[in-house]
Specification:
The chain has 482 residues and is of the alpha/beta class. The protein has helices at 2-27, 48-59, 76-101, 111-138, 153-163, 185-196, 210-217, 228-239, 279-299, 301-314, 345-355, 357-366, 377-385, 392-398, 414-417, 421-424, 445-457, 461-476, and strands spanning 144-149, 170-176, 202-205, 221-224, 244-247, 260-264, 267-271, 320-326, 332-338, 402-404, 430-432. It is globular and about 70 Å long.
């Protein structure tokens, strides 16, 4: 429903916009403008494009789940990639149809409308889907019931992710944990009940009760977060009943994007690909970052002219601020920003941390302050809009940073990353990244590290494009910025 509605809306907007722009230009100094010389009603006959789009989506496995709710396992980046491919294929077919069937209608229709609708649908279809997901979750409709096997860290992380996220469309009916063989497992069961009760997830029994209880409730999807040995011991039993079995062996990141199933004469497995380690992919990312940074610089050129003047007029001190950060392989470099703090910010920070234990605790955990008195009034606006980070485009040009990548950190933060720092430092840090589009300053430190690690292990051009689009919306709505 949302996919068909999106295509109709995009075609209507593209046709009307093209027609209105042509009329405006013809009225204001371009009488011979060829744009918009058609009747809008001519495009009504292209309604089968919506049906074709849905059919191509189905062929690309974009309706996985139940009949009402396309759900997991497609992640948001993979869904975005497939929706873009589907839009291109559908509209390429529409343009081919125009070329053969409407040769005698030159001037009454425009292929440009089809091209604009294709671009709009590529960007907008996922937003329509997310809107539909939000509505369905609020109405408690279409949510796929699942049972959860295990009560460890991975199970709790999975439940926490689903708690406020409508994307997956999954509703946990209950969970299973422990066995009856060891009496002390009863105490573990009680602990699990206390831990899950805030999310209203019911304890349904031990791991031996999974299939009987699932049959009783007619649940066909299992999320297994149990020990590997127990999972392998019960795999045949699970396969005899469940349609979908999702196995989450640990609460950590793996190189999943681009992974594929492999078979060696009956021995099945999963090939995980770390695309960031491929030299060709690294060159591809460097070229893409440089090109997009150049485009961004051209778009924001007026801001580079106006902001320095306003910084000078609103506070004493230099226009730019530079700070030492760690880049790829731990090499130090200076990151550039428009100055958003007072020139004596370091002195003010020491005074704040000495006088306020709560501020000192907040700084120790995240190296940020929610109410930072060091920031100037105009600096607050710069930070809210993220315009203070525009000079980092020069860091991209110089090769110190990427347009998209992990968050650049200082020396004191290395200890927070622990063993993950080796993975984290294998790529250039970015102006924007996964943590920025996942809440920015509202994201906890542990979550930031997990997101940065996931990005490094699962990098792809599509992931970068998806993050850039999410960044635009995050900045426009000033979500999580401080």
């Amino acid at each position: 429903m949302s996919d068909a509605l999106c295509i109709v809306a995009m075609w209507a907007f593209a046709a009307w916009g093209y027609w209105a722009l042509g009329g405006f230009l013809r009225t204001h100094g371009w009488p011979g403008c060829p744009w918009g010389g058609y009747e809008l009603a001519e495009y009504v006959r292209f309604f089968p494009v919506a049906i074709a789009f849905v059919c191509v989506n189905a062929a690309l496995d974009l309706y996985h789940g139940n009949w009402m709710y396309p759900s997991s396992p497609q992640g948001p980046v993979e869904e975005f990639r497939r929706l873009c491919i589907s839009s291109l294929l559908t509209h390429a077919g529409a343009i081919a149809y125009m070329a053969f069937a409407y040769q005698s209608m030159e001037g009454r229709i425009s292929r440009a409308v089809c091209i604009y609708a294709c671009l709009l649908a590529s960007v907008g279809t996922q937003s329509f889907r997310n809107w539909m997901r939000f509505v369905l979750k609020r109405l408690n409709m279409g949510q796929i019931p699942v049972v959860l096997a295990g009560g460890g860290e991975a199970a709790h992380r999975f439940a926490a992710v689903l708690d406020g996220d409508p994307y997956a469309g999954i509703r946990i009916v209950g969970y299973f944990a422990g066995t009856e063989r060891i009496g002390r497992k009863r105490r573990r069961r009680a602990w699990n009940e206390r831990d899950f009760q805030d999310r209203k997830i019911t304890y349904l029994g031990t791991l031996r009760d999974i299939v009987p209880q699932a049959k009783k409730r007619d649940i066909k999807m299992l999320v297994a977060c149990q020990d590997d040995r127990l999972f392998r011991a019960q795999m045949d039993e699970f396969a005899a009943w469940f349609t979908y079995v999702v196995y989450l062996p640990a609460a950590r990141s793996f190189p999943i994007f681009g992974a594929r199933a492999v078979n060696f004469d009956g021995i099945g497995g999963l090939e995980m690909v770390n695309q960031g380690r491929m030299k060709v992919k690294r060159v591809q990312k460097r070229v893409m970052d440089g090109f997009l940074a150049l485009v961004a610089f051209a778009v924001f050129l007026p801001a580079f002219l106006v902001i320095p003047v306003l910084v000078k007029l609103t506070s004493r001190g230099p226009v730019f601020y530079r700070h030492r950060r760690l880049g790829r392989d731990g090499r130090e470099f200076f990151i550039w920003k428009f100055r958003s703090m007072y020139v004596d910010a370091d002195r003010r920070l020491k005074a704040i941390l000495a006088s306020s234990p709560s501020a000192a605790k907040e700084w120790e955990s995240s190296f940020k302050l929610s109410r930072d008195p060091r920031v100037t009034p105009f600096g607050r606006l710069l930070r809210k809009t993220s315009l203070d980070e525009l000079p980092q485009l020069f860091n991209v040009f110089f090769g110190d940073m990427a347009l998209v990548g992990p968050r650049p950190i200082v020396d004191d933060e290395v200890r927070q990353y622990g063993n993950s720092y080796r993975v984290f430092s294998s790529v250039r840090p970015g102006i924007t990244g996964l943590w920025q589009v996942s809440g920015r300053s509202d994201t906890g430190y542990g979550r930031r590290i997990a997101l940065d690690t996931y990005y490094v292990l699962n990098w792809s051009p599509w992931l970068d494009l998806w993050i850039l689009l999410r960044t635009v919306f995050a900045v426009l709505f000033m979500r999580g910025a401080r």
